[in-house]
Design a protein that fits this description.
ten-stranded mixed β-sheet; alpha/beta; four-stranded mixed β-sheet; 10 helices
Length: 312
């Protein structure tokens, strides 16, 4: 089985808690907090590791919170390589208002990385990856990291004979697509942004995804549509998945769960339709979990048969 390497250039310690009600001025007494390792690539690695696949998480981290992050990743049992940086790893804070059930998410910018620091992450991935492996770059870029960082990783992946997967937005996503990737997982807002098109109906969404494929910018496009479901498009086929009816406890980690399950399924020989079904089940399972928790394999296996796919 191919190894999967994930890259997180701006990870975080994710803190989540609840309060009776979010109000200005007065001191808000929180319930017990929960701390988990965070950042797109780390979360994707956590999901893949739970399915028992060979995954390695590469991430940049520093300071006291970087040490905490390392301990949290170790506690999860995820194999990892930390690239040390001078700045302090950021924290993200999620608060659930128990009265309104509204979720508030506070995300700090994180440290600024020097060129030797972010370049060391690329070198670490090149050392780890070999032919036919999967490399997943996911999450926001840290300050100081050039917008073509994921494009550079895509080029390095091609040189090593690896399949490169990107989950990003804005210029970093656009530049990665220009370099060419195996799989891209934008949400609708991200795809609208890089194409500057409204994409208001299913057919326009499929056409946009297929155009990326035909232009050689991606072999597979997995487009998440939030409460409306998801699309997976290749050169020869496209599938639409209806959303599963679930009570949403938290939206944090749903996209990472989707991507982790999708790549795990593909890496084990699943076809694209099976991979989409697994991914939708994983994203739905994460929505049902409170705070920053991710999907669990047993929930994914239980929900997968309920996912309805339609060829487009």
């Amino acid at each position: 089985m191919a190894r999967i390497v994930t890259v997180t250039i701006n990870p975080a310690v994710d803190v989540s808690t609840t309060v009776d009600r979010v109000e200005p001025v007065r001191k808000l007494r929180c319930r017990a907090e929960r701390r988990e390792p965070g950042g797109g690539g780390i979360n994707v690695a956590r999901v893949i590791s739970r399915f028992g696949a060979d995954v390695m998480a590469v991430y940049a981290a520093g300071g006291v919170t970087g040490q905490m992050l390392h301990g949290l990743v170790e506690r999860e049992g995820v194999a990892a390589r930390q690239v040390a940086v001078a700045g302090m790893t950021r924290e993200s804070f999620t608060v659930l208002d128990e009265t309104t059930q509204d979720e508030y998410r506070f995300v700090l910018p994180g440290p600024e990385l020097s060129e030797p620091e972010w370049d060391a992450c690329i070198e670490e991935v090149q050392r780890l990856a070999s032919r036919d492996d999967y490399i997943i770059a996911s999450g926001s870029l840290a300050l100081g990291v050039p917008e073509d960082f994921y494009a550079r990783l895509a080029t390095a992946a091609k040189t090593s004979g690896c399949r490169f997967i990107v989950d990003a937005s804005g210029p970093p996503l656009r530049r990665a697509l220009e370099a060419g990737v195996y799989l891209a997982k934008p949400n609708l807002r991200e795809l609208q942004g890089i194409l500057d098109e409204p994409l208001e109906d299913r057919q326009s969404q499929v056409r946009a995804c297929r155009r990326l494929v035909e232009q050689g910018r991606a072999e597979i496009v997995a487009l998440t549509l939030g409460s409306e479901g998801a699309l997976l498009v290749t050169r020869d086929a496209a599938w639409f998945s209806e959303p599963l009816p679930v009570k949403v406890m938290s939206s944090v980690g749903a996209g990472d769960s989707f991507l982790g399950a999708l790549v795990w399924s593909l890496s084990t020989g699943g076809d694209c339709a099976d991979a989409l079904r697994c991914a939708v089940a994983a994203g739905s399972a994460a929505l049902r979990a409170p705070g920053t928790q991710l999907c669990r394999p047993e929930d994914v296996r239980r929900l997968s048969p309920q996912v309805r796919l339609h060829p487009v």
